[in-house]
Every structure is written in C-alpha cells, then in structure tokens.
Amino acid sequence: MNVARLAVRPSVLARRAEGTPNVASRQQPLKSPSRFLQLPHGSPVADCCPRFFSTSSALCCENRRTPASADTSGTKTETSQDRYSTALRLNKEWAAQTAKEHPDLFPTLANGQQPQILWLGCSDSRCPETSLLGLKPGDVFVHRNIANIMHPGDLSSGAVIEFAVQHLRVQHVVVCGHTSCGGVAAAMGNKQLGILDPWLLPLRQVRQRNLSLLQSLPPEEAATKLVELNVREGMDVVKQKGVVLNAILERGLQVHGLIYDVGSGVLRELDTEDSEEAIKARLTAFATEA
Ligand SMILES: [Zn+2]
User: Fold this and answer.
1) Where is the region Disordered (predicted)?
2) Fewest C-beta atoms under 10 Å: which of 151, 159, 210, 241?
C-alpha cells in the first residue's frame, strides 16, 4: 500500500465557483461573537429557554427570534408564520432567477448529482454550507448535526460518508466547526441536558483530555479551542473509516478541517497534515480487506 498517499495535504478547497471570492483564509483572525453567551437573564431570548441559557443559548434560541423583536422602523412586523409564507414566495423568485441566470442548472440536476465536496458540519442556522461557500445546488453533499460531532458508530453520518465517498466519489471531505457553537458551549458547562448529554459525550471527552489547556485560556478562547479540537477529533474518526482510507489510497481523497467564523462569514483552514508515524499507525489499526 502506498502509505505516502495517506498524507492529507493542505486543502485546495479554495478552488471556487466562477466569480465568487476565496473563502478559505489562514490570515483572518477569529473573533467569536459572544452575544449568545452574554444576554442577561430577563431578556426575551434568555426567558425562552433559561435551562440552556448559561451554556448553550445559541443552541435553542437563535431560531426563535422573530423580526418583530428587532423591527424599529415602524413598519408592519413579521410573525413566524409570515416568515414561512415569505420563504415560500422567495423560493419561487429564487427558482425563477436561478433558472434565468443558469438555464442548464435545474435540468442537469434533475438527471443526477456529481458533488465534489462532502460537508460534515453543525446544524446551526448560521452555517449554511452551500451559501457560505458561494456554491450552487448540486455542489455539496451534506451531513449536519449538533456541534458537528462524528460519533464512530453513528449510522446517519456513517451512511452519508460511505455514500458520498464510495458512490458519489467526492474528492474532498470537509469537517467544519464554527465559532459561538451552542453545542460546544454546552459541553464546556456542566448542566444536565437530557438527550443532548449522550450526544455531546465525545465533546466532553475531548474537553477531559485537554482540560489543562482549556482551563489556561479565557472562556471565549477556550470555547473556540474546543471547536478546533472537535474538528480534529472528527477528522480522525472520518479517516478511520475503511471506505475513506481506501479512497485516500486509491484516488487521493482529501480530508480537510475548517472553522467558520459566524461573526465575519470567513472560513479558516486548520493545518491537519498527519505525521508519517500517525499515518502508519492508522493504516495498521484500521485498514481492512474484503
Ligand atoms: Zn454549532
């Protein structure tokens, strides 16, 4: 086996759709907006889910806010039902405009898909992968869950990864975390969260293994560091899957780690190149044959 090909090179993800700006940047500093973690109790957002407030308000509150609370123009305020109706109307406008600008797109997509990117990201409403990449329908195959956690035994993400790698033959697998992640904030706290507790377990394990480092940092930096560590953990899980190992060996599949800054819209690419020793160990432990 060609061990050298298992090395995951720095991404060429910046390969872009025509006319769109480069989204991958190593230079952009990350500043995690902390508004979701600093809202005072008694605010409308804090009242909507006080149980989550101190550690993960972004997890449950973001989508409950309506334009009514932010509208100071004196115009007619929009209810959540209005927003749904508006969305359906906007869809018709978007479909018509897209068909006008790209006449072949929808007829081509009706016959199948050939995405080159598999995106494994967080469910957060602020991280719509196709939009933030400046791409179009058909460009990105997607699995998103709370805090972009890659559970080794998760059937859902496992099926998505296998289908994308083995059948769609994507060229790039992206594990993307983001700043101000409510799931990460929850894992940094110690409140009981019901069904979220087993879901967040891998995040807490990463927290445990890196406790000294995280405790040495200011809270906001510690949260962003845990986002990064979680991405690296997720990449390890992805690269331990036989179908991914084979695709790396046989056709140079690349696995990337990104962090999306919700406060600026900019992606930062992590340096995730594996050492030769790590590559050999992974291959020894996880490569399988039929
Ligand atoms: Zn998140």
Assistant:
1) 17-37
2) 159
